[in-house]
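From the methods appendix. Each design record in this collection lists the tokenized structure first, followed by the designed amino acid sequence. Records were kept in a plain field format so they could be parsed without special tools. The example shown here is representative of the layout used throughout.

RECORD:
FOLD TOKENS (69 positions):
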């Protein structure tokens, strides 16, 4: 795991350990930051595009190989 991934894991574990009301407060503060909100929306768009892939490229290669043989 990289340093960035480690820091993210620490943050998420700390966030998960908070009571519900404190989680709501932290989330609210994070979403009040325009730059952070924009970054989250961009990541959401990337994830949405990834989910729209019909199938992994490997499956297409396997089908092509089966049809050629």
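DESIGN:
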């Amino acid at each position: 795991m990289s340093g960035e991934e480690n820091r993210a894991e620490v943050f998420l574990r700390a966030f998960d350990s908070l009571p519900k009301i404190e989680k709501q407060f932290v989330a609210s503060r994070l979403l009040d930051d325009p730059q952070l909100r924009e970054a989250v929306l961009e990541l959401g768009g990337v994830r949405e595009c990834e989910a729209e892939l019909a199938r992994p490229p490997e499956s297409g290669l396997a089908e092509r190989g089966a049809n050629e043989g």
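APPENDIX NOTE: The chain has a mean pLDDT of 82.
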